[in-house]
Design brief:
By secondary structure, the chain is α+β, with helices and mostly antiparallel strands. The protein folds into three domains: 58 residues, Roll (Structural Genomics Hypothetical 15.5 Kd Protein In mrcA-pckA Intergenic Region, Chain A), CATH 3.10.290.10; 76 residues, 2-Layer Sandwich (Alpha-Beta Plaits); 118 residues, 2-Layer Sandwich (Pseudouridine synthase). 17% of the residues lie in helices and 33% in strands. Strands 7, 8, 9, 10, 11, 12, 13, 14, 15, 16 and 17 form an eleven-stranded mixed beta sheet that branches. A four-stranded antiparallel beta sheet has the order 1-6-3-4. β7 and β8 form a beta hairpin. The longest helix has 12 residues.
């Protein structure tokens, strides 16, 4: 029986034993090609576990199906050239803007983690995240010990994370402190004053210089991040009246490249003596 979908999610319980592709083609009227693509993407869950093969399903198997998964453009990306640094414990890559850091609930393949695992042929673990429309320096651990070590450095704030952004208006220099309302929803809501239960957000604007982009003139800012809240730079710059170019979620009036915003993780510095740095946002 197929139930009414919610947020592009379908639910189905098999009435008899059948192979997965048979269910997709008979009950959901999908072509063989589309059914194969959904299985390959990891858009289907059997009894709450993601599956990647056309397996036999016993009677009563509960399926959760994302029949319209969000797709990300990874064709043509030279993932080997994205490798910036590699050791026995970690790799650092230049994450492409417009591609997720890791698997999404409806797409396990079109992301930076899966593609670098495929290219390098080794296990990689998430240590930090960049929003999908954001590119730049990103570290994956090769083992759980280094993953734990790096996460400790993150929690202890012993890392230096620097970003470049192109903003629509000049941004005041110096250290800026705001408070963010705890919520899983976006855009994030900020306050200039402390509020009970709200999270502190702190960054420093190191520089702000005019920068031409096409026929428009904007301002390129360099930002040091002191706390690591979701959407923090995007929300704080917008709160200060300087939305990032292309970031419609936070009120930007101008477009950037498709599926991207003008924000890049430029530099990552961490003990004992590790430093990885990229060049200009528009280079």
């Amino acid at each position: 029986m197929a139930l009414i979908p919610s947020n592009r999610i379908f639910h189905h319980v098999t009435a008899k034993p059948a192979r997965l592709k048979q269910v997709l083609m008979e009950h959901f009227k999908l072509s063989d090609e589309r059914a194969s693509d959904l299985i390959k993407l990891g858009a289907i869950y059997s009894n709450k576990k993601r599956i990647f093969e056309n397996r036999e399903l016993p009677q009563g198997t509960y399926l959760r199906l994302h029949l319209h998964p969000k797709r990300f453009f990874i064709e043509g990306i030279d993932w080997k050239s994205r490798l910036l640094k590699e050791t026995t414990d970690f790799i650092v890559i230049n994450k492409p803007a417009g591609v997720p850091t890791h698997a999404t609930v409806d797409n396990a393949i079109e992301n930076s983690l899966a593609q670098m695992r495929k290219v390098l042929g080794c296990e990689l673990l998430v240590t930090q995240r960049l929003d999908t429309p954001v590119g730049g320096v990103l570290l994956f651990a090769k083992n759980k010990d280094y993953q734990a070590k790096f996460n400790r450095m993150l929690s202890e704030r012993s890392l230096q994370k620097t970003y470049l952004a192109l903003v629509e208006k000049p941004c005041p220099l110096g250290r800026h402190l705001h408070w963010m309302q705890p919520s899983e929803r976006s855009p994030k809501v900020l306050s200039a004053e402390s509020r009970t239960g709200w999270l502190s957000c702190e960054l420093s604007v190191l520089s702000c210089v005019p920068k031409d982009f096409g026929e428009k003139s904007f301002f390129q800012v360099e930002v040091d991040l002191h706390t690591g809240r979701t959407h923090q730079i995007r929300a704080q710059l917008a709160f200060m009246g300087c939305p990032i170019v292309g970031d419609k979620l936070y009120g930007a009036a101008y477009k950037f490249h498709p599926n991207c915003i003008a924000l890049m993780a430029k530099r990552l510095k961490w003990p004992p003596a590790n430093l990885v740095e990229l060049k200009d946002l528009l280079d």
